[in-house]
What we know:
With 266 residues, this protein is of the alpha/beta class. The protein folds into two domains: 10-206, 2-enoyl-CoA Hydratase, Chain A, domain 1, CATH 3.90.226; 210-257. It has ten helices and ten strands. It has helices at 34-48, 84-100, 117-122, 151-159, 161-170, 176-181, 194-206, 210-222, 228-242, 246-257, and strands at residues 10-15, 18-23, 55-60, 64-66, 106-110, 113-115, 127-131, 135-137, 174-175, 187-189. The strands form two sheets. Strands 1-2-3-5-7-10 form a six-stranded mixed beta sheet, with helices on both faces. It is globular.
Amino acid sequence: MRVDGPDQPVLLAMEQGIARVTLNRPDRLNALTVELHERLLEILDMLEARRDVRVMLLTGSGRAFSAGQDLGERDVDGDAPLDLGANIETYYNPLVRRLVALPFPLICAVNGVAAGAGANIALLGDIVIAKESARFIQSFARIGLMPDSGGTWTLPHLVGQPRALALAMTGDPIDARRAADWGMIWKAVPDAEFDAEVESFARRLAAAPTSALVAIRGAVRSAWDRTLDAQLDLERDEQRLLGRNDDYREGVRAFKAKRQPRFTGR
Length: 266
């Protein structure tokens, strides 16, 4: 079911528990504008209010995932100082916080170049799948800035400090195959197989026990900052909650009956 028109800067389509969200400014490589941010946040409000969403799939239209901030919105010719921090506080930081806290898994399907904030938003996915032809570019230093949209946190956690610093300081592109080899993303797939791979993975997660996937995401991310003792306590508490869900009962019944489980996300 498509729930908007094709002229929107972000498109949303719902099918069988999969929320397909597409950045839709292909003529500008899906560069991020205020209008796009506002539309995307509206869509997140809509999805979080629904009970039938099992996974969100975020991708771009055309030949890019996103080229990052649309610099056409930046007036640098006047003498007045620019407050980029206000823009980040109003749009980028809320978006990052919303994406990492979604009550369902997030798949980012990187269909082309992902640069600047576009790259760091892509890397927020719980699962990131990219075309082999896709490239990730930390382009900030090229225009006198530093990474934002969580990049200074995400990158070193994913690839380590030496690689994170080199990527951020040089702005050199990294192709999807190397990104996968470095642990930056889950998988790089041949371009011809990309759509089928993304579709298969989205359907797989949509049929999985949603609460368990969200708990896994939270526990793995929190492990970066916790001691083993604290993590053991977290595992105990989360298992207690998950054990009360219908999906756990269904999973055990299916295992005993030697059949595929039919999870409902509850």
